[in-house]
């Protein structure tokens, strides 16, 4: 037998079904990561399996969101539309996040994390299968409807999974734990442009509905697994309730709207919400603009640009793994501060070099890719720092934080600036401004927490 703590696994893996082999490998990986030498464990032994299952969701929505960056360029060619018109792919998707975030939070408050996940997966599957009639009609509007339904499903997944991951263990390692889960989000994001971009830009006239049919089937299977699995519902500690002026009895009576009102009056939470929104504007806009920018500048073909985007997102994923490891030893605020410095510097130099041609285009491309490494830890770190200490308000706070992907509509501003200014470089001023806000947020957290830079 292979023994890890009190978890026993058959040594002869040939005797174990394939699904069990995968679960065993995941358990061994996560448990070894959790039991590295550290004063505080990443999670507790009883939460290993829930943590593995929840982390699988991060991969699924990362894949779904990264496909948008390929669809953008694909629909420009297939439907003969401009960058501004194709940006409504992002606008429609992230508008779904904005509109559904609070309803999703209220329903998860009532139903619990598990049922929220199942509802999200079912909506995800329905939206994916709607790509089939979209292909029949070849209507841009039909595709947008399908993407909106998928977005509604993703809101449920993210609203449930992000705070749930932070609560599956000690609060001291919440940022590290969420960064580890978000690393698999990066893996899904990295594979999507490589796999789907390779298919759509292959010149074979591949059907855009094929990857969505495959995704729909996988998501339904995952929904079935979740519906048959017992997941612990995290109990709110009494101290957290007291911090928010609620007794345990009052907590159950408090309506979702009451909790939202309390959050709106919390200045620290509002700053974190704004910082996360600015990060989403920057990150999603750059992803969506990547293929348009590199092809428009004449640096890469559409197929090669999608592969380089995939490579960049693998670097992004690696950045989250590295960040998760570093934050077990270094305060999350300090890591966020230096990463914000890196993003501001990368995009500022990209603007200068591309505008003034100080170096050749390879330097600009390297700076753009480097930005993916620096920004990797931002979402989970801002998210967990903003949720810290909210106790009974955590689920409601999460639903508000999950409105921030509406920042993806910032790509519309980049597209308008590109189409009407005639410059493909100037639009990067928008993500640069977003990273500056993240820098200010990180600096304020260092000051508040008395953490040295």
CATH superfamily: MFS general substrate transporter like domains
**Main β-sheet description:** 2 strands, antiparallel
Give the class-level CATH name: Mainly Alpha
Rg from Cα: 22 Å
Please tell me about this protein's structure.
The protein has 453 residues and is mostly helical. Helix 13 (267-296) runs antiparallel to helix 17 and helix 15 packs antiparallel against helix 16 (361-375). It has one domain (36-448): Growth Hormone, Chain: A (Up-down Bundle). The chain has 20 helices and two strands. The protein has helices spanning 18-34, 48-78, 83-86, 88-111, 113-129, 131-137, 140-167, 174-200, 209-227, 238-243, 248-253, 256-264, 267-296, 302-326, 332-356, 361-375, 378-387, 394-401, 410-421, 429-448, and strands at 2-4, 7-9. It is globular and about 50 Å long. The longest helix has 31 residues, at 48-78. The protein has a two-stranded antiparallel ribbon with strand order 1-2.
How would you summarize this macromolecular structure in one to three sentences?
The protein is 75% helix and 1% strand. The chain has a two-stranded antiparallel sheet.
